[in-house]
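hiii so um. not sure if this is the right channel but i have a protein structure encoded as tokens and i wanna go backwards to a sequence. like what aa goes where. can anyone help
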């Protein structure tokens, strides 16, 4: 069975409360529930994790590197700053799909630099919470070898 790791970075545990005009009103638990439901439809297994620490995200990537076929990651602000997370994503042996709730290119100039996207096979942005489902579909196709 295809196994997909879903990682959420700093501050994403505050979804639904944090700047809902930008990030929407759905909390992370609702997004994860929708992903689990979609995963069941696709016949894939998901593991959802959220961490505020860069090192904790890297540890999860290393831990799942031999088990997960793909990773869907919303690195949050680490996307714009973390060479260490970029390196860990490059070392991940499976498909990497990066997702962002907002279109980062339509926001502040510092958000237009996306270091971690260099390691991504696909980048999904600007679809709000629905972007996670798109990302999961892309990761599942890759896990089945459908590209």
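sure thing!! here u go:
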């Amino acid at each position: 069975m295809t196994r997909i790791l879903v990682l959420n970075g700093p501050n994403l545990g505050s979804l639904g409360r944090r700047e809902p005009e930008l990030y929407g009103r759905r909390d992370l638990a609702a997004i994860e529930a929708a992903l689990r439901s979609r995963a069941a439809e696709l016949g894939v297994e998901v593991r959802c994790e959220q961490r505020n620490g860069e090192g904790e995200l890297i540890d999860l990537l290393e831990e799942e590197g031999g088990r997960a076929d793909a990773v869907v990651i919303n690195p949050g602000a680490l996307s714009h700053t973390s060479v260490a997370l970029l390196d860990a994503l490059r070392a991940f042996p499976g498909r990497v799909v990066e997702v962002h709730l907002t279109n980062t290119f339509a926001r502040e100039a510092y958000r237009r630099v996306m270091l971690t996207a260099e390691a991504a096979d696909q980048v999904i942005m600007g679809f709000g919470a629905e972007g996670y489902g798109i990302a999961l579909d892309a990761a599942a196709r890759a896990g089945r070898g459908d590209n």
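oh and The CA atoms of residues 141 and 147 lie 6 Å apart.
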